[in-house]
Structures
1.
Amino acid sequence: MGNWVINYWLSVLFLATWLGLNVFLFVHAFLSYEKADKYFYTREILGFCRRSLRKQLDHNLTFHKLVAYMICLHTAIHIIAHLFNFEHYSRSRQATDGSLASILSTLSQQEKDEDSWLNPIQSPNMTVEHVTFTSIAGVTGVIITIALVLMVTSAMEFIRRSYFEVFWYTHHIFIIYFIGLGIHGIGGIVRGQTEESLNDSHPHRCAEFFKQWDNHDSYCKHPRFEGLPAESWKWILATGILYIFERILRFYRSKQKVVITKVVKHPSNVLELQMSKRGFSMEVGQYIFVNCPSISYLEWHPFTLTSAPEEDFFSIHIRAVGDWTESLIRAFEQKHSPMPRIEVDGPFGTVSEDVFQYEVAVLVGAGIGVTPFASILKSIWYKFWHADHNLKTQTIYFYWICRETGAFAWFSDLLASLEHEMEELGKVDFLNYHLFLTGWDTNIAGHATLNFDKATDILTGLKQKTSFGRPMWDNEFSTIANAHPKSVVGVFLCGPQTLAKSLSKCCHQYSSLDPRKVQFYFNKENF
């Protein structure tokens, strides 16, 4: 009897435990994906720790995905184990050979106690489908499996990038998933022998004499079973309470009034919003979630702050890349309509906060990915203006890769101001910036070539000339490594994954094996 129970239920219990552990981690991962204030505070608390320890916080999205994959894997194994078990239950219930399995399958009839069953298939004509859709465990299992499939499939990069609303709404099915998971084990389909029955008929003592259970003079009686208490709710209770508390805090904070002080329409269909909010405090490179109730009450979209902490407002740059952003830009372009109301939640921390912890910083932005570095460059301007002697960073290399010339106009005034400021202070070598244009034709290239001898660039009006094509990263990293042979260099990227792979490879390749010499640390923005 003991072997039969163990063989059929051990796999389910073991996998359920692993699934519960992964769900526990998933709630943590979901909270980290939400990136609430705790992320910022944790980074501050760990500020005195080793850089490698702090950097692990920046892999929260990767952690979120890995735990989700493990949940999918263990869910699949868990379901397959149940299917095998039900096949064994069906055979055992239909068996008439008087074996231990067949006797245990008819316990409720022999004992005339409907609650003392062990096999959930309690009659030869009962099907697996009937058990699945008439039991709490079966119905909730189907519901949470469907919810999990919808969440995973809608989170694929293609859907997330092209149909963000689909991803956003289906990902919030996690509420149904966790509720179903919490009550999944209430039906008691996983059974265990009662304490009283264990004392009277311990499996080690009575399993071999199962044919004598009906004898009145036998010291072994028919075993009695009961449903084991539900355990899954324990895995999600603490983290669920933490999540609810966080949502209440974020809801309260998002309802605080936001005043739009300035609206600027930039080239390449980019909108700049300058705002103020009571008690708002930020650091460089952070981002906020923005909601426009007139477009959607439920959709919140992340935008990197382009203002500096030293400014008396905070700003974002919004590029039209989807239905929501296009609707928002159109709403602000309406001249005879009231200005749309904006709700803001944040700010939230990112890897860019650590930029001033490095002696040398390499900033790489692709297209609108330049926004976190605009905040950093503005802050540098203010630090030099106010003669901040606590600035640890000695040199900054800034690379901006754009597909169209109009994009350079977003922050050309900022770069021009920094050029002028560095010249006046005699720190021309502090900021080395390089602009790369990837979308160009022969007319643009020919026009730039004819005007190459001019003091300023024909495309941007800056002293630094625009390069055509993409950077040769091996040459760039080699130059930086030779210029700073004993420095710690932080490489920060806000751009596509393909570029991230190239930069990560270069960081590893050009870091010296000697820890006293040049070391490159790669940091990527994750949203």
2.
Amino acid sequence: MIHTCLKGNDSCEYLLSSGRFLGEKVWQPHSCMMHKYKISEAKNCLVDKHIAFIGDSRIRQLFYSFVKIINPQFKEEGNKHENIPFEDKIASVKVDFLWHPEVNGSMKQCIKVWTEDSVAKPHVIVAGAATWSIKIHNGSNEALSQYKMNITSIAPLLEKLAKTSDVYWVLQDPVYEDLLSENRKMITNEKIDAYNEAAVSILNSSTRNSKSNVKMFSVSKLIAQETIMESLDGLHLPESSRETSAMILMNVYCNKILKPVDGSCCQPQPPLTLIQKLAACFFTLSIIGYLIFYVIHRNAHRKNKPCTDLESGEEKKNIINNPASPLEILLQSFCKLGLIMAYFYMCDRANLFMKENKFYTHSSFFIPIIYILVLGVFYNENTKETKVLNREQTDEWKGWMQLVILIYHISGASTFLPVYMHIRVLVAAYLFQTGYGHFSYFWIKGDFGIHRVCQVLFRLNFLVVVLCIVMDRPYQFYYFVPLVTVWFMVIYVTLALWPQIIQKRANGNCFWHFGLLLKLGFLLLCICFLAYSQGAFEKIFSLWPLSKCFELKGNVYEWWFRWRLDRYVVFHGMLFAFIYLALQKRQVLSEGKGEPLFSNKISNFLLFISVVSFLTYSIWASSCKNKAECNELHPSVSVVQILAFILIRNIPGYARSVYSSFFAWFGKISLELFICQYHIWLAADTRGILVLIPGNPMLNIIVSTFIFVCVAHEISQITNDLAQIIIPKDNSSLLKRLACIAAFFCGLLILSSIQDKSRH
């Protein structure tokens, strides 16, 4: 049915009424994501709030679990059959438990007091009771009839309170009858179901011609069905189940206040910003413009259709198909991009599709890894050239790394430290290739022209800039692109500054090699200084307008952390490129087809050292116990496994002569895959998983992955097409375009500042 596929505004209702366990203790609400609230977040949400729990011992359990989110040291002590107060004076939070084990006149009087205008009402009321009525009256039908009468008299009072407060009626959880003591044997699941049906029927019909404002908290029934057998007495739920119910209550109330990224339940759709509205207008005009252009072009084509020569009977061709004009390519590209961005927005901003929390298992990570590795090995071809790190090989390397990173993200494997440490090496390897590739280009070509710089910056940043506008996210949110952009500029400045040392000049005099090493040494000193001087780093990137690019949540700490985590690897890539090209120039390496890179003895020795180094790093990474400590060592040691892999992959001639076309294809669109996953494969800004087809995880992954890969490939084509038009080779035209781009970003900064002021 349609309503099960689309979330709409029912996520709050789904959170309160449906869900399932992922594994043993992770609760997954139907259609949305649940945030796990920390102490500080809970206090921030509930400041100056009063929450009241009213009911029996099961409600008391829920009260304790709720309070422990705010104060984990709160102890379950005191007389169980009395009211229990809790107050955090610093946070100004008040939570009370009121002992009313039966739905009777006593409970009614307590609720009635709150309905009076002169009395301060709780902001949240959680009520429920039934098992005591069953127990005291031995499960008689008369007790059920009395329960119906009492709840009927209470219903209008709850409805009146629900107009100004959040009111939840907790339905009764099932019991584990085999564990019940003799004095509780009359509390059967059949009786509990009858009481629940009565409560739902009466409370839902308490208002005429409109939906009741009293919300049914029925999800605890589903939780209890899975966990009640772990109960100590058959009646009260185990602690983990109570904690889940309390966290659901916290999500229901606080998500709409704090708006956590990974708490999509109960969150309203964010309003469109001014920049988003302008972007929507631009893409709409582009689509209309392209359609008009297409219709005009098609009509012109029809008028110039080949006509038949009456004498010869042959067709005369009146026109020659001209290549598409720049205007047509521009309109077509923005038309396609507009449709793609609409899909992005619907997936991750419009609350249209479901989102689910990630849940890590070893099988969910390692089985897909094995599957793609088998596919990658199956599709192999001969390389066009057999040089170290040739184009096909680097595309292959990027491809399999990107696929592993994607599986890592969707499986939630970041919670497993050994996998996390190995993925950090893959990210470092991308940056290593950045250093290697750009250094090699500038060293060999000596092309420091503005066209090259603009081409690279455009290809790296175009998609991210569009997403920042459409998805209303800061530039630093897509952290990898700022990282490679800054490192590209560092490489460019290092090599372009006087004296410009390139291979052609250095071949004539070895002194220039020494000069380049001095440049690299100075770069390393700058990196070390910034790495160990957080204050200086933050001052540089907190300057306007850099702060607009690199701030996240009001500071640049996240940017400093990301930069520092792989601070040496780009330098390592540049140094490796310099040494490799120097050895290649002196013909020390044997790069012929099928030939080992060095002599047999040296090749075998280096292969042995590489394999040992590779395995040693993996053993160290797998034995990591503390993420912070391992992250501190990572910048210095990640290069070991990267160099080991390069040598293992390139020393044997047969390994250097083949590549996986499967991985290489993905490698060509690796940047687009990395960025697009944020919104159309994952969800809630990578914190969850997008659900296009509910109820069938395998089919959902297949469909969403197919769309995701197709979109990434199409965006890659669009970026390449637009780069040719927007970044022309002619310097005078390029300078005019750059002036227009500068004006665009100035306007964007002004609009962004206006938006920030209106938000605050």
3.
Amino acid sequence: MQLIIIFSCVFQAILIFCWVYVRKYQSRRESEVISTITAIFALAVALISSALLPVDIFLVSYMKNQNGTFKDWADANVSRQIEDTVLYGYYTLYSIILFCVFLWIPFVYFYYEEKEEDDGNTCSQVKTAFKYTLGFVTICAVLLLIGAFVPLDIPNKKNSTEWEKVKLLFEEFGSSHGLTALSFSISSLTVIGMLAAITYTAYGMSALPLNLIKGTTSAAYERLENTEDIEEVEQHLLRIKSKCRDGRPLSSRDRRTVQQLEERLRTLRRRERHLESIEKSWWTKFCEAIRPLKIVWGVFFIIVALLFTVSLFLSNLDKALHSAGFDSGFIILGTNLTNPLNMLLPVLQTVFPLDYILITTIVMYFIFTSMAGIRNMGIWFFWIRLYKIRRGKTRPQALLFLCMILLLIVLHTSYMIYSLAPQYVMYGSQKYPVQSNRTIDGQPRNVTFVSKDCDADAPEDQCIVTRTYLFLHKFWFFSAAYYFGNWAFIAVFLIGLIVSCCKGKKSVIEGEVDEDDSDMSDDELSVYYR
């Protein structure tokens, strides 16, 4: 009963956060009920899905005592039921993600695009949106068909006990073609999520803490500079217009210059209004008051980011040196090269529930750094910038893209956590009893049992592998792609860290005022600075 109450409170908190986040960034002039509901629902699904990993680890660990024995209620049937329940939870949420990515979000996106281009009847807009959405549905159907018939038998190396153990785990995982098809589709999306994580999460992990540390420029100082720029542009305009006082027309070059200067002047005056609102707002004064706290959080986040990067590097290096190779997807059971996170989690296991708090914090950290990366970079298609994410001025299509990207990143988060702490993700805090014989004068005198952390050498009936681990490694070629993606993630993080260190302070209205904004957009943003 208590668990139900806790889950209910968490669910309500997630919905409230999603509503506040979407309403904070969406444009007031272009907001639509259907796009708002879709964005809130998709964001909530992303956050709820990210909570599956800590729950999975907790359940397999909760079935055993500290001495390595199973609890009285955790017999073979009960443990199997718990494992199946977690597995069905994964497939249920992942099916919802498939529905969102391939049907709901594309339909709402194209429906809104058609509404902007044609203000005709709703029936025509729905038909056109369905027509474009069929392309996404076709892709999903193709992935499901490939997944249903893709061969899982991989030519393994001879005398490779590592791979034989993995094959046994796969056989235990089941061979249903329907579940395999769904798993293949989700794994395909996870690869796309990996690319999104490399692009946005890696950059967000460096940009978010450094922005907190460096802060923003002073609104008063920016107003002074902006006033000087306005005066300079006005003087330049007067010099050019003075050429036609005697009735002579301006040259085409001067006319283009005047047009550019007038656009520049409108932008500077909008900046002046925004800077004045920010300088007088209570929010600015509050942010200045908590500036030391922001610096502390920034230092903490950069330490955490460096800890993650070092752990990821050591884990990938371990796979490169000790795994069965490319044909097995660089799968490795156990840990040969330890990393800081793998060292920290066993220490925290001694005090319940510190290890679960840490793993949940890590998952949330990835989600929020991904949000920060998307917010700072905007949404890109290769070298083309599609949308910007701006407070109070984000278009509905951009919000839908943001939520879709977060859904894909969440799918990849589980593998990122596994890469950081492989032993913990496989077994959690499980232990198993090992017989220890005491000898006196070479003769066995006393037989005792000591508990040992579960690893690849543990008996199969003594340690339960999480469903997360088996799900991640169902297809060896996806595991190989994730392995190389981790190296790319490390490289992008380091590049982003260097770029963020070299950049100066952000403007206090960074990204809030652009030349293509209308004067009406000022009213949308003013509500945040009163």
4.
Amino acid sequence: MPEEEFYGKNGEPRKYDPTFKGPIHSRGCTDIACCVLFIVAILAYVAVGILAWSQGDPRKVIYPTDSRGQFCGHAGTPLEKKPLLFYFNIMKCASPMVLLEFQCPTTQMCVAKCPDKFMTLVKARLIPSEFEYYKQFCKEGVTNQMSVPDILKGGLCPAMLTPSKSFTRRCFPALAGKDGSITVGNSSGFDDGTGTIREAKDLVDGVKNATVVMEARQVVMKVFEDYTHSWYWILLGLVIAMLTSLLFIVLLRFLAGIMVWVMIVMVILVIGYGIFHCYMEYAALKGAAGSNVTLQDLGFQTDITVYLQIRQTWLAFMIILAIVEVVIILILIFLRKRILIAIALIKEASRAIGHVMSSLFYPLFTFLLLAMVIAYWAVTAVFLSTSNEPVYKVFNETECMHSRMNCEPANFSTSAMKADCQDSECLFAFYGGETAYHKYLIGLQFYNVFLFFWCANFVTALGQMTLAGAFSSYYWAFVKPDDMPAFPVFAALGRSLRYHTGTLAFGSLILSIVQIIRVLLEYIDHKLKGAHNKCTRFLLCCLKCCFWCLEKFVKFLNRNAYIMVAIYGKNFCTSAKDAFFLLMRNMIRVAVLDKVTDFLLFLGKLLIVGIVGIFAFFFFSGRVKAFEDTAPHLHYYWVPILTVVVGSYLIAHGFFSVYAMCVDTLFLCFLEDLERNDGSAERPYLMPESLRKTLNKKNKTPPAE
């Protein structure tokens, strides 16, 4: 292809400019309209947060709610010492309507402890001491002078009590197995309080449906409790990850070549140990009872530790790690020559970071801003989800025209509904509402998610542009560090916020739109999981794949556009076009240098996550005897492990992003240098001598002093 035709398709190369000294200081504000839009959106986001905080009540998630809509065990209330929820008749939870309405049609009240003995109201009424015990599980107003029929007619007490155990702050019958049969109180039958002998297995359906209703809350509460018991150990693990990342970066600064090879070997060894550990667990479960159950037969279980008791889980882990190990080794074999060039680029990045040491601590600022964004989003989401009002409905045992209609508990006893249906009750059903605020609640949640993406992407973009401005000032300095600003990071941060807030908002808005579309596609896919339309499923899968690729491309384009904005101070579209054409004119170099370097830095992140993750696993799982007494006792030990692993990756990514941004910035500056200069005395290359040797480039004569 002729050179003119090639450049015609991919833009014109940069011309030599003797006045160009690096990032342009004389620049103006860019993408002002998007800056205004972003400020308005932030103000609206604050308004949504204030509205949510004024309407929401997180207690609805934390505490169980009785039939009056009161919170059990909430401090500062009359029910402070009654943290458990008791069902008058758990067998009513066996109704299929429970799964539709998410509420058992029986009176529920807060109690101090669950009943620990079996008795009926009829028998308890005959013995004063037993009746005093029984009244703990009755409504207020029950006296010793009241007869059993009057108590039952008024719905003041349950007809019977069964031995129960607390499960997620709710009292469920303590059912046991005996010779293959279900028993309660060591008996396979019980008197239901009306003189009818019922089988203990009749309680199973009630418990099962009540458990289904509360299953999501059970998991959330257990995870929440695990966090409360292990948060300080999680924090310590994240601090260790931060110190390890910082140490790795510092060593990379002075021993780049050695550290890269150490990193490669360590990653292979860590993954190899993972394969060995999975094999040992797989072999240890051989012959164990129930270990040969397949994952398909086991189905979904809220207790993740169940999966670790079957051999197929460890076999799957072993295969996955083996594939990853083989892929990494093959990549290293085929790219062994390219790795040497990438190491040279990392060495140069290390020198740049040595001149801009404050850049190593910039990820802490980004992490702080991201933590604020995440905290604001999470708190707003919780308050929005709990800003509904309590809804009460009519529940009855016999046919009633008012069944499941809304009611007011305060005046229900004197209402026409009660007169028409004598056995009906007005009970708390769920949280909802029919006001304009409640109708648009889903829209506010969507806005909360969208602004979370936009703000998080804005913070990330600000970090990229700031670091790009600092490192480009290093590259284009003729005499380093004399020609560099005194505080390159602060100077670049000031330029980015003063002139290019709109550009940052524009790029992050495009990325956020793509991400929110991906979230909607995942939501639709979740809703259509039961559908058998293969065409729809295939189309949805294609859309998800396309938008995943689009997100990766937008991130790549934004990153390079921010580098060009940091250097030349132009708007987003112009900078994105210039960066894209510059990369297209040097496509081979992009594939050889930039991507191989990214792969090496990814191995570094993988190494840190692997090391911290292995230590977290042995600590929280109690596999090491030295930590058995120190480690907290948890429902799910995978909760802190997963948190530490994800947090370690984010921390390592934050520190390595400095290197990645430095490499990308130097790479674009290097490509610009090749187009602007030719190595002659009048137009010498500004790239360091080590990089010139690696790329077989040299200045014809030394530049004039």
